[in-house]
C-alpha cells in the first residue's frame, strides 16, 4: 500500500460525527489534526500494512494527523521482532505521542513485551526519568499492562512512588496503575496505601480509581472508603504520622 493509497483510505473511512466525538476526548489536540476514523478500522489497516510488508512504511516520515500517528504505533506493535529490532522503533515513536489515547493504544499493541520482560523493564525505568509527559505515561501504562504480577508488583509500586509530576495525565496513569495492583493483591496494596507513599492528589485519585473498579467486591471498596475517611479526619486534625485507625483498617476484615 502506497502512502497515497493509505491517505485515501483514511479519508474514505473518516466520519465527521466521530471526529467531533474524538475531539471532545482529546483536549489539547487541535481538531484539524483529527480525521475521525474509528480505532477498529485503524487496526484493520495496520494489519494490512504489516501483512504486505511494513519496512518501507516504517522508514518513511510519519504523518502528523492523530490517525496517522496512532496507525504507526499499531504497525510497530503488530510488526514485532526481536527486542533489539523493536526498541529503536519505540524510541523514534515516543516523541510523536502527544495525547493519552495514542499513548495507551501504543502500549496495548506492544505484546512483544511478554517475550522480553526484563529488557523492556530496564527501558521503562529510563523512560520514567524523561521530561516528556507522554514518555513517562508510556512507562507507567506499560507497567500496569504487563508487570502487575507476582514477580514485579512490589517493583511497580516502588516506581510509582518515585514519579513526581504535576502533569494530570501522568498522575492519572499512576492512579490507574495502583488500582490495577490493588485488584491483583488487595492486602499488600492496602498496606502500602495506608502508608501514603504518593503525593496527596495522586493518592486520592488512586483510591477513586479503585472505587470505580468493577472487579472488586463491595467489602474491598468499603475498606478503601474507610481509609479515605481516616486520612480526611487526620488532616483536619493536622496529624503528620500514619493514623492508628489506618493500621486498624489494614488488619480488619470487611470483605463479603
From TrEMBL:
<dbReference type="InterPro" id="IPR016024">
    <property type="entry name" value="ARM-type_fold"/>
</dbReference>
<dbReference type="InterPro" id="IPR014825">
    <property type="entry name" value="DNA_alkylation"/>
</dbReference>
<dbReference type="Pfam" id="PF08713">
    <property type="entry name" value="DNA_alkylation"/>
</dbReference>
<protein>
    <submittedName>
        <fullName>DNA alkylation repair protein</fullName>
    </submittedName>
</protein>
Amino acid at each position: 500500500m502506497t502512502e497515497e493509497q493509505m491517505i485515501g483510505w483514511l479519508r474514505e473511512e473518516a466520519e465527521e460525527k466521530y471526529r467531533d466525538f474524538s475531539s471532545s476526548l482529546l483536549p489539547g489536540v487541535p481538531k484539524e489534526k483529527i480525521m475521525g476514523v474509528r480505532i477498529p478500522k485503524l487496526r484493520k489497516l495496520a494489519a494490512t500494512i504489516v501483512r504486505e510488508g511494513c519496512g518501507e512504511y516504517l522508514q518513511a516520515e510519519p504523518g502528523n494527523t492523530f490517525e496517522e500517528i496512532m496507525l504507526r504505533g499499531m504497525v510497530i506493535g503488530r510488526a514485532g521482532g526481536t527486542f533489539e529490532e523493536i526498541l529503536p522503533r519505540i524510541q523514534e515513536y515516543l516523541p510523536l505521542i502527544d495525547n493519552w489515547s495514542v499513548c495507551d493504544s501504543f502500549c496495548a499493541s506492544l505484546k512483544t513485551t511478554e517475550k522480553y520482560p526484563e529488557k523492556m523493564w530496564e527501558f521503562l525505568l529510563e523512560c520514567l526519568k524523561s521530561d516528556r509527559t507522554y514518555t513517562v505515561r508510556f512507562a507507567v501504562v506499560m507497567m500496569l499492562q504487563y508487570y502487575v504480577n507476582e514477580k514485579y508488583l512490589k517493583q511497580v509500586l516502588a516506581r510509582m512512588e518515585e514519579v513526581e509530576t504535576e502533569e494530570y495525565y501522568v498522575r492519572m496513569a499512576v492512579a490507574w496503575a495502583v488500582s490495577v495492583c490493588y485488584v491483583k493483591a488487595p492486602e499488600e496494596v492496602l498496606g502500602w496505601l495506608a502508608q501514603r507513599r504518593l503525593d496527596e492528589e495522586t493518592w486520592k485519585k488512586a483510591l477513586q480509581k479503585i472505587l470505580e473498579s468493577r472487579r472488586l467486591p463491595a467489602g474491598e471498596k468499603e475498606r478503601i472508603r474507610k481509609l479515605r475517611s481516616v486520612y480526611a479526619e487526620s488532616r483536619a486534625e493536622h496529624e503528620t504520622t500514619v493514623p492508628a485507625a489506618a493500621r486498624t483498617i489494614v488488619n480488619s476484615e470487611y470483605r463479603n
